[in-house]
Amino acid sequence: MAMSSLSPATSSVRSVYRQPRISPPKRLLSLQGNKLSWSSSASYVKLQAKVTLVVKGLPKKSGYYRDPIIKCATMEEIEAEKSLIEKNARERMDKAIDSVLSNFNSIRTGRSNPAMLDKVEVEYYGSPVNLKTIAQISTPDSSSLLVQPYDKSSLKSIEKAIVNSDLGLTPNNDGEVIRLSIPQLTSERRKELSKIVAKQAEDGKVAIRNIRRDAIKSYDKLEKEKKLSEDNVKDLSADLQKVTDEYMKKIESIFKQKEKEVLTV
């Protein structure tokens, strides 16, 4: 049986026994060396550990080498991804809020408000245009609206558009302007409008939740691409939930305000 001495660098293992080709029932492993290094780039930090294991019964050069690599995004990378996705989510949520407000403003509440005509489309020279782009709308008092077109030839088209709308208003065209009288709402009609307002608010909340879902999918995609870790995604999702809650509260606030406006005689 031959025995050979090892170099000082591997003094932790005193000798290696050269065995016949038949492997022994058990082999003992010894740690010969341990090397740890790291490097970074714009996107990742790479941690690399090289471990050499010497198997008793095998030549030194037959040692096992393990080379684990751990990749994770840098803090700058995580913040950049978070900012981009969160910015997009906020922009979409702002639009959802604007949509809810627009729907609320178009609901007649018994008091004159130029926003009531926001959704009225007028056929103007063969193309549908928004009424407020071709006329000035004002409120002479709390129970009437005054529509003054920039082009008097559009008076008939404006009158027709208001009649065909779902506002339930009867326009008075005197050849110069159109006057609209805002009748008081009945108790039954107020209750109906309250339900419509509640439905529109819920639609807004659904839109907010869908935007959150899309943002979470973006985080999950980055995790699959190994750009974010599972813990990163959990933390970012928690932050996104706070943003979602913030916009849910905004919708609830404007809903309560509009509901009160609708139900108040």
From TrEMBL:
Purpose of the protein: Responsible for the release of ribosomes from messenger RNA at the termination of chloroplastic protein biosynthesis.
Name this protein carries in UniProt: Ribosome-recycling factor, chloroplastic
Keyword Manganese among record annotations: no
NCBIfam families: frr
Cited HAMAP family: RRF
Domain of life: Eukaryota
Similarity field: Belongs to the RRF family.
Keywords from the named record: Chloroplast, Coiled coil, Plastid, Protein biosynthesis, Transit peptide
Matching InterPro entries: Ribosome_recyc_fac, Ribosome_recyc_fac_dom, RRF_sf
Compartments where located: Plastid, Chloroplast
Name of a matching Pfam family: RRF
Residues forming coiled coils: 212-246
